[in-house]
Automatic annotation (TrEMBL):
This is DoxX family protein. Keywords: Cell membrane, Membrane, Transmembrane, Transmembrane helix. It is a multi-pass membrane protein. It comes from Hymenobacter duratus. The lineage of its organism: Bacteria, Pseudomonadati, Bacteroidota, Cytophagia, Cytophagales. The keyword Transmembrane applies. The chain crosses the membrane at residues 12-32, 44-67, 79-100, 106-125. Belongs to the DoxX family.
């Protein structure tokens, strides 16, 4: 059956849908943290104490807010894609660590953990053909294949 054949011609379109959907959601989720200012950043960045980084919580919180809000936009556009995925992966790992160390139930940290796996997978997969990275920095492999 055609449905089960291993001919994924829509691979790049699927990556586009995934990037845009997740990117928009993370932008919406991170924007309030970004505009929350230093008090919000200090609260978010205070989580870094859990891994031994108990200095500059405002900086770490600001970095997390930028990773979610701006990283989400970069993800959706497919621009500096792997950097955005790496920053979002780190942010989601810290969110998971925070929930687990607080003794929260699986339901409380499952979103962060699932997102961490998503960004790790995307980090290896890349943004696909329909991305600004591909337009600005075309890979030799894709140029030859298409």
């Amino acid at each position: 059956m055609v449905l089960f054949e291993n001919r994924y011609r829509t691979h790049d379109f699927g990556l586009l849908l995934l990037r845009v959907g997740i990117g928009v959601m993370f932008t919406i989720h991170g924007y309030p943290k970004l505009v929350g200012g230093p008090e919000m950043w200090a609260q978010v960045g205070g989580v870094m104490k859990l891994v031994g980084l108990d200095f500059a919580p405002v900086f770490w919180g600001f970095l997390a807010a930028v990773a979610e809000a701006v990283g989400g936009q970069l993800l959706a556009l497919g621009l500096f894609f792997r950097l955005a995925c790496a920053l979002l992966l780190g942010t989601m790992m810290m969110a998971t660590i925070m929930h687990v160390s607080s003794g929260d139930a699986f339901g409380a940290y499952s979103h962060a953990l699932e997102s961490a796996f998503l960004f790790l997978g995307l980090l290896f997969t890349g943004p696909g053909r329909y991305s600004l990275d591909q337009m600005l920095f075309p890979s030799r492999t894709l140029r030859r294949l298409y």
